[in-house]
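Researcher: Quick test of sequence recovery. Tokens follow.
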């Protein structure tokens, strides 16, 4: 009986098309998002510099001064503060939507780079399989993220976490290629990224440090000649991380938080949260995605030089790494963290699930004496079967929850996004009125979940009110009461 198959390349291009189509509603609705909260507080000085001078270079210089001021007065994450000070609306409110493009590009490009480096360069799978995995991962991380607003639309929160997460994945990929290709430009670029990531949010910096130390330990165990070279970017990363943690502003910020746990209790609690969220985040669409990838991995690991010998250790390391991501927030604030932080922990969780799925499949395939087999195509019946399972899981989820793209389309179809943006433009007209010094802003008629984060209040002393007041040079800004 003739067996029908479908090439990996065709599957990849179909998934890539699905990914790109799914981004259209998200990018379309992004034009209705507007700055809020920390977008104003971190952009006050840079916005003023650009309005007064119209010079990009002077605005960047002002961002550097903002970094120095915040480093001593509030937080030490220097590279993150630099980016937060240059939020797109600083140069004009019409550019704010570019933040969404920036976040999606960082996450998706970083995912594709990492998957190509790990699954092809390390595990030995064909490049088209790495593309399939990257496309599935990107779709899941974009569509099922816990808070789309804080992952892609609110610039300050998303650049602090989502953007740095994407850069981290790209840096991991560059590190793998540098160890294999030994090009000097790769090592130089890796050192620059190490400094950048070390000055980012503490969760990403800690994850990089753990991964970097673990990689160095593996190189030493294998007596790899690159172990001394790898110490250079690792040293840059740890030094930048230490400079960030040693900032005087961190002590100022920490003094405002009460009842924080000890380091030991924070670590213990982080392992508990790692287990809780591992169960909580296992949704039907994610399960369907893993089912879809199983035949891809089963047919793809045949003939790979990689042996997949230590699946239990890989799973244990994955759990420890995931748990460690909860630790900084637990230690600093005695809670798991806001949704903007949980977003990147979720992205890491999905990535680690897929890596473990591949590793365990490879281990089983090797034990089944499939080492010499290399399938050129995927069996068509298997692809159709797992695709039906995946679609069924997605269909059930749409009825109970929803995807980011579906929510974006719903927000535009209902007119909520347009009404929200129209109100924002009326507000902006008042804020740009030089004759109006005490401004009363109308309340948004809708708060679209997909991109709305927060708003000012009726209290003029609210920090969000004060920030927008300083940003537009007003005496007072309040929200109209009921």
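Model:
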């Amino acid at each position: 009986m003739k067996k029908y198959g479908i090439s990996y390349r065709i599957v990849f291009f179909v998934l890539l098309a699905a990914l790109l189509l799914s981004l259209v509603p998200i990018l379309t609705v992004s034009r209705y998002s507007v700055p809020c909260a920390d977008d104003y507080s971190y952009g006050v000085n840079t916005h003023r510099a650009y309005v007064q001078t119209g010079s990009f270079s002077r605005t960047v210089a002002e961002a550097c001064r903002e970094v120095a001021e915040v480093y001593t007065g509030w937080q030490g994450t220097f590279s993150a503060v630099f980016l937060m000070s240059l939020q797109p609306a600083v140069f004009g409110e019409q550019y704010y939507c570019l933040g969404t493009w920036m976040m999606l590009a960082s996450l998706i490009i970083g995912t594709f780079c990492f998957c190509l480096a790990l699954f092809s360069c390390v595990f030995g799978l064909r490049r088209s399989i790495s593309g399939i995995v990257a496309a599935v991962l990107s779709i899941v991380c974009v569509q099922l993220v816990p808070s789309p607003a804080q992952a892609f639309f609110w610039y300050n929160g998303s650049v602090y976490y989502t953007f740095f997460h994407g850069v981290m994945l790209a840096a991991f990929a560059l590190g793998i290629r540098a160890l294999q290709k030994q090009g000097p430009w790769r090592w130089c670029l890796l050192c620059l990224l190490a400094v950048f990531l070390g000055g980012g949010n503490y969760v990403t910096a800690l994850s990089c440090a753990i991964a970097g130390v673990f990689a160095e330990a593996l190189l030493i165990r294998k007596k790899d000649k690159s172990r001394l070279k790898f110490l250079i970017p690792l040293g840059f990363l740890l030094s930048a991380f230490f400079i960030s943690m040693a900032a005087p502003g961190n002590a100022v910020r920490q003094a405002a938080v009460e009842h924080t746990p000890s380091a030991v209790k924070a670590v213990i609690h982080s392992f508990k949260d790692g287990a809780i969220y591992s169960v909580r985040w296992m949704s039907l669409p994610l399960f369907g995605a893993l089912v879809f990838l199983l035949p891809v991995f089963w047919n793809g690991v045949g003939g790979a030089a990689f042996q997949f010998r230590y699946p239990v250790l890989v799973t244990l390391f994955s759990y420890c790494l995931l748990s460690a991501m909860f630790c900084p927030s637990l230690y600093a604030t005695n809670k798991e963290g806001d949704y903007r932080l949980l977003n990147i922990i979720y992205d890491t969780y999905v990535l680690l699930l897929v890596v473990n799925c591949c590793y365990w499949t490879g281990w089983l395939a090797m034990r089944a004496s499939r080492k010499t087999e290399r399938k050129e195509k995927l069996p068509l019946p298997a692809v159709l079967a797992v695709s039906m399972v995946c679609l069924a899981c997605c269909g059930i989820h749409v009825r109970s929850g929803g995807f980011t793209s579906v929510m974006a389309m719903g927000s535009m179809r209902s007119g909520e996004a347009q009404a929200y943006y129209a109100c924002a433009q009326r507000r902006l007209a008042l804020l740009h009125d030089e004759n109006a010094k005490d401004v009363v802003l109308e309340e948004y008629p809708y708060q679209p979940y997909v991109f709305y984060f927060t708003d000012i209040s009726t209290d003029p002393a609210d920090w969000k009110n004060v920030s927008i007041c300083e940003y537009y040079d007003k005496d007072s800004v309040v929200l109209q009461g009921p």
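The chain has two domains: 5-32+97-181+247-409, 415-482.
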